[in-house]
Specification:
The chain has three helices and seven strands, in the order αβββββββαα. It is α+β, with helices and mostly antiparallel strands. It has a single domain, classed as Peptide deformylase (Peptide Deformylase), CATH 3.90.45.10. A five-stranded antiparallel beta sheet has the order 1-2-3-6-7, sandwiched between helices. It is globular and about 45 Å long. It starts with 24 loop residues before the first helix and ends with a helix.
Length: 172
């Protein structure tokens, strides 16, 4: 089931999410809904708080090449266990801030540990778009948006655009 995505500013997007104690059928179903929502948006990542659920769960799939097999990842309690000193700047966007983009600098490579949908521990090194995306989504679990990396004036400008966007949406 496709779920509605919360738009900034929404207080739920600024909250720290609770760790998942046990991977239940309900949480697996939520992960499936999140993947469907992400693909239809379309996006390459989605965090549970973006659909109003304050659990440490993210989904991502950074395969963008035409004809390449999708690689959906479901991560419960993801943590970055190592990060490179080498940095990468990538123009980031967010499904909670549609049509707004800005350059964000993050570690170019990270190692991530998480629990998969079967309750098994996983660990993987990521680089490129995968590294950027997983860091962006984990930030959501800590109540942080990509605009929080920007200078105050640019962040305020984007927030004002989102307030106007939400007002127009509400009017229908």
């Amino acid at each position: 089931m496709k779920r509605p995505i919360l738009y900034h500013p929404d207080p739920r997007l600024k909250k720290t999410c609770a760790p998942v104690a046990d991977v239940s059928d309900d949480l697996r179903s939520l992960a499936d809904d999140m993947l469907k929502t992400m693909y239809e948006a379309p996006g390459v990542g989605l965090a549970a708080p973006q659909v109003g659920v304050l659990d440490r769960l993210i989904v991502l799939d950074c395969v963008k090449e035409e004809g390449e097999k999708p690689r959906p990842l479901v991560m419960f309690n993801p943590t970055i266990t190592a990060a490179s000193d080498t940095l990468n700047t990538y123009e980031e966007g967010c499904l909670s801030l549609p049509d707004l983009f800005a350059d964000v600098t993050r570690p170019a490579e990270v190692e991530v540990a998480w629990i998969d949908r079967d309750g098994k521990e996983q660990r993987e090194g990521m680089d490129g778009l995968w590294a950027t995306c997983v860091q962006h989504e984990i930030d959501h679990l800590d109540g942080k948006l990509f605009i929080d990396y920007l200078k105050p004036l640019k962040r305020q400008m984007m927030t004002r655009k989102m307030v106007k966007f939400k007002r127009e949406l509400a009017r229908g």
